[in-house]
Amino acid sequence: MKPYYLIVVLILLSSCIKESSTVSYTIFINSTSHNISVHGFKNGIIQSESSFSLNANETKNVFTLDNRGIGNGLTFGGFNQPIDSFIVTFDNIFEIAHYKPTLVGTRPKKYLYTSRRNIYNDSSYVANLIKDEKLMRNWDFKYTIIEQDFLDAH
């Protein structure tokens, strides 16, 4: 009877199929001397899972996604399309809104989707393929908040 167990175990082990995946990391860089908070809003309510803060000159991985299959990755903004907008606040005083492609809000200080400064716009990120193997691909996407963002919010 023992040989049958060995055969069953060998069949089960040989039938395991490794699945491919793509892992995306989104890193935000605050290159300013200001403390920053980013809040995602949906229907006027802050979405805590889409919000984070950065101290002056801080770099932080704010989003990691592991998808099945080999692909081109997904940015923080791309993943958060269900969110209505992001509000970036500098030093708890000055704010600028980032609107998704289908929304133009009423805030006077805003980045529309077409802006290369907009968090939703994938062209605002610097993409870097950090691992490319048969069953695994890793991307990092970097978004840098610059002094001009502070000036635009001021």
Task: Describe the 3D structure.
This protein has 154 residues and is α+β, with helices and mostly antiparallel strands. Helices cover 16% and strands 44% of the residues. It contains three helices and nine strands. It has helices spanning 2-14, 76-79, 147-153, and strands spanning 21-30, 36-42, 45-54, 59-68, 85-90, 94-99, 110-111, 126-132, 136-145. It has a five-stranded mixed beta sheet. Strands 4-1-9-8 form a four-stranded mixed beta sheet. A hairpin with a 2-residue loop joins strand 2 and strand 3 (45-54).
Short précis:
The chain has 154 residues and is of the alpha+beta class. The chain has helices spanning 2-14, 76-79, 147-153; strands at residues 21-30, 36-42, 45-54, 59-68, 85-90, 94-99, 110-111, 126-132, 136-145.
Range of strand content: 35-45%
Strand/helix succession: HEEEEHEEEEEH
Distance between the termini: 78 Å
Helicity range: 10-25%
User: Spans of 5+ residues with little confidence (pLDDT < 50)?
Assistant: none
Q: What structural class should be given to the helix and strand makeup?
A: alpha+beta
Strand line-up of the largest beta sheet: 3-2-5-6-7
User: What's the number of extended β-strand segments?
Assistant: 9
Largest sheet: 5 strands, mixed
State mean pLDDT (0 to 100 scale). 90
- Total DSSP helices: 3
What Rg, in angstroms, do the CA atoms define?
A: 21 Å
Rough shape?
Answer: globular
Task: Name the quaternary structure.
Answer: single chain
